[in-house]
Amino acid sequence: IRRTRAGLVTRSLANVVDVLVVALLVAGGYAAVSAARFLLSPTTFTFPAPAPATLLLLGLFVQAVYFTVTWAVAGRTYGDRLLGLRVADDRGTRLGWKRCTTRAALCTIFPIGLVWVLVSRENRSVQDLLLRTSVVYD
To answer: Burial level of 41, CB count in 10 A (0-12/13-18/19+)?
Structure first.
């Protein structure tokens, strides 16, 4: 079966959903840390105030882990699932952990690589070209 590769708009919408999922995960982590601090010292409790750079780095780390795990285990993120997408290799099969980890790092560090879909005849991002992957309609 030859599947159609997804374009920029669909992939971008899936990424927006994924960013929201990551933001909720980071917010949940913040709530858990706050609750633990409160339980350990309720009389002197103050909410943690991490530096913006710390939150950004934590968010990027969570995003990379989220991408890696969801692509390796399910072949797609939650955003991909909502929009009917799947990440696949050249044969149309699910990626292994190593390729998922590399792809996740590239997508997190260099998200602008997605824009290459606009000039690619095959609707492939820079990350797809480097790793021989595709985002296809499932």
So the answer is: exposed
